[in-house]
Predict the 3D structure of the following.
Amino acid sequence: MTGAETPFAMGTQTVDPGCHVREHLHDANEEVIFVQSGEGEAHIEGKVHPMRPGSCFFFPRDRPHSFHNTGTAPLTFMWLILPGGLETFFARIGRARTEGEPPPAPFARPDNVRQIEAETVFGRL
C-alpha cells in the first residue's frame, strides 16, 4: 500500500557513519521517527538531541530538522509521515530493487532533486 491508499506512509531509512539527512521540513505533513539501531543526533530548530535505539521524535508541520550519524555503525530509523508522500519522493530519487537484493552502490541524486522535493512532501526552509 502507498500513502495514496492510506492516510499515512511508513518506511525505514539507514544513514551511514559520518553521513546525514540534510535539514528540511514538511509544510503539509507530520512525521514520527523511531530509532531502531545506531547512534546519532537529531538537530531540531537549532537544538541537538541524541538519537539511540528506542528514541522517538515527532515533527509537526514546518519544524526544521536533520539527522546526523555520529556513531561507527549505520543509523537506522523507521519513519511515519501523515499524510503520505515520502515514499513517492524515495521512489523518484532511488533505484528500484527486488526483495532480497542488496542495496545499490552509492549514486548521485537526480539533477532535479529540488523539484522532486517540492512536488512531494518537502517545504521551503
